[in-house]
Design brief:
Elements (H helix, E strand, L loop, with lengths): L3 E8 L3 E4 H7 L5 H8 L3 E4 L6 H15 L3 H4 L2 E5 L10 H8 L7 E5 L5 H14 L6 E7 L10 H6 L3 E8 L4 E10 L7 E2 L14 E3 L5 E3 L4 E2 L1 H23 L8 E4 L4 H11 L6 E2 L12 H11 L8 E8 L3 E9 L8
Parallel strand pairs: 4-5, 4-6, 13-14, 13-15
Antiparallel strand pairs: 1-7, 1-8, 2-3, 6-7, 8-16, 9-12, 10-11, 15-16
Helix pairs in contact: 1-2, 8-9
């Protein structure tokens, strides 16, 4: 049985961290310099008591409010997050109750970052193809801001918080096609929060600074930007070749490329390396930032709303980052490429 994206929505927290605020915190860094470096003007930040679970709930409720009948159809919840409320139980189980879904609803979390949306689409498609579900609610939600040291201006400038809700069903505006995946677990330390888990449960407390002035703390988010950049340039091109090869397509036959919205510099470098025209390469991070697993669905929603996908056929989604992990998915749009209401 085929699987489709039937509807998608997203939620962003009310609090905003602007470049003006970052410049006030770090006077050596002007607003213009921040934007030139990352291509982001502002990012939304979860409130002190607001969690990824809360945001996922709000994204789902927004989906239900805009698309009549969707709530009643759901029989499985998938939640992609690396910032769960509890070590246990599963946040998706709590969402079943909060959203008022039947107890016959399946629910599970999966921990993945920047490649998580495509993985989630694959899991949802598998549930539908296997006859285990007909309507899957795929949620992504992340609060990386809670992992960032308050003096870490690099990561503060990049990451924002957000959530998305996507209904994957047996009909919809975009057929979910082929996938390509990859993993390099040997490089897991390149993007990590080291303490707080079972291996290093206690806080470390130490903070160091490299020659570029970047903070390193085992208790907070650490990202080796240079190595993540190199990894992306190395792995994304062959992943796209594999994905398009499965589908019998070429780069030229793809209408829109919608990649993980990491930062503007990386995306532009990647676009040029792949020789993709600006018209086919969708960017949507200036007023959102890098929301990890939610960047692709948020960008998808924007592309639907602003007409970018109108009358388009082949759309490639791609995610890459923490893990290290990468993923690609081909969507085939139906007709006018608009969501059902």
């Amino acid at each position: 049985m085929k699987a489709y994206i039937k509807a998608a929505e997203y939620y962003l927290p009310e609090n905003i961290l602007s470049n003006a605020e970052l410049s006030r915190r770090f006077p050596e860094w002007s607003e213009a310099q921040i934007f030139a470096k990352v291509g982001i003007r502002e990012r939304h930040i979860a409130a002190a008591g607001e969690t990824a679970l809360d945001m996922a709930q709000k994204a789902a409720e927004k989906l239900f409010a805009k698309h009549a009948g969707i709530k009643e159809s759901i029989d499985f919840i998938l939640l992609c997050t690396q910032s769960p409320d509890y070590k246990l139980p599963t946040s998706a189980c709590i969402l079943q109750d909060r959203l008022g879904l039947p107890q016959q609803t399946g629910a599970l979390d999966f921990s993945l970052g920047c490649s998580g949306y495509e993985y989630g689409l694959a899991l949802a498609k598998g549930l539908i193809a296997g006859g285990m579900a007909a309507h899957v609610l795929l949620l992504t939600a992340e609060t990386y801001s809670k992992y960032i040291h308050p003096e870490d201006k690099g990561n503060l400038s990049i990451f924002g918080d957000g959530a998305s809700a996507t209904l994957v069903s047996t009909e919809g505006f975009a057929e979910i096609g082929d996938f390509a995946f990859g993993t390099d677990g040997s490089s897991y330390k390149e993007l990590i929060v080291q303490t707080g888990g079972a291996r290093y449960p206690a806080a470390d407390g130490s903070i160091t600074q490299d020659e570029s002035g970047h903070l390193h703390s085992a208790d907070h988010l650490y990202m080796n930007g240079a190595n993540i950049f190199s990894f992306t340039l190395k792995q994304v091109p062959p992943m796209l070749d594999a994905l398009l090869g499965k589908a019998g397509l070429t780069m030229e036959s793809v209408d829109v490329f919608l990649f993980h919205q990491a930062n503007a510099y990386m995306l532009e470098f990647l676009r040029k390396k792949l020789k993709i025209s600006k018209e086919k390469f969708y960017c949507c991070l200036e007023n959102v930032g890098n929301t990890v697993s939610s960047t692709v669905p948020i960008a998808l929603c924007h592309a639907l709303q602003d007409g970018t996908l109108q009358d388009k056929k082949h759309v490639v989604l791609a995610g890459f980052g923490v893990g290290l992990s990468w993923s690609g998915c081909l969507l085939t749009m139906n007709g006018s490429s608009t969501q059902e209401s």
